[in-house]
């Protein structure tokens, strides 16, 4: 049995919700994370996990003004990804 990383799993759930917005969202995430669209697909289907750098890039994408203009992740009480004051300046 592998190690569980609840914050990464929560981030991937947000990514899945983001990708359901419409066509081209997986490609947008792939470009943002400097990886292939098939890698993003592997993350969404649990075959791979993002690296630390990729997870940070995903966080930036999902919490950027562009992404949150039409979409907001649903923050549960468990595993919240908190915004820092430096996030507000991006």
Summary keywords:
434 Repressor (Amino-terminal Domain); mainly alpha; 6 helices; 90 residues
Protein described:
With 90 residues, the chain is mainly α. It has a single domain (6-69), classed as 434 Repressor (Amino-terminal Domain), CATH 1.10.260. Helices cover 56% and strands 0% of the residues. It is built from 6 helices and no strands. The chain has helices at residues 6-19, 25-33, 37-44, 52-62, 65-68, 85-88. Helix 1 packs across helix 4 and helix 2 (25-33) crosses helix 3. The chain is globular and about 30 Å long. The model is unreliable at 77-82 (pLDDT under 50).
| Secondary structure: number of strands | 0
Q: Please give the CATH class.
A: Mainly Alpha
Structural class from helices and strands? mainly alpha
For the terminal residues, how far apart are their CA atoms? 38 Å
If you consult CATH, what is the topology?
434 Repressor (Amino-terminal Domain)
In N-to-C order, the SSE pattern is: HHHHHH
Radius of gyration: 13 Å
For the record, the count of structural domains works out to 1
Mean pLDDT: 78
> What would you say the CATH architecture is?
Orthogonal Bundle
Query: What percent of the residues sit in helical stretches (DSSP H or I)?
Result: 55-70%
Q: Give a short account of the largest sheet.
A: none
State the low-pLDDT regions, or none: 77-82
Beta-strand content estimate: under 5%
Broad shape: globular
């Amino acid at each position: 049995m592998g190690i569980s990383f609840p914050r990464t799993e929560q981030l991937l759930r947000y990514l899945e919700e983001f990708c359901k917005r419409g066509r081209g969202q997986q490609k947008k995430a792939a470009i943002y994370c400097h990886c292939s669209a098939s890698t993003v697909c592997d993350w969404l289907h649990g075959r791979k996990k993002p690296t630390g750098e990729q997870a940070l890039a995903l966080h930036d994408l999902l919490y950027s003004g562009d992404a949150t203009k039409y979409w907001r992740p649903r923050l549960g009480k468990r595993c919240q990804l908190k915004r820092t004051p430096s996030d507000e300046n991006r």
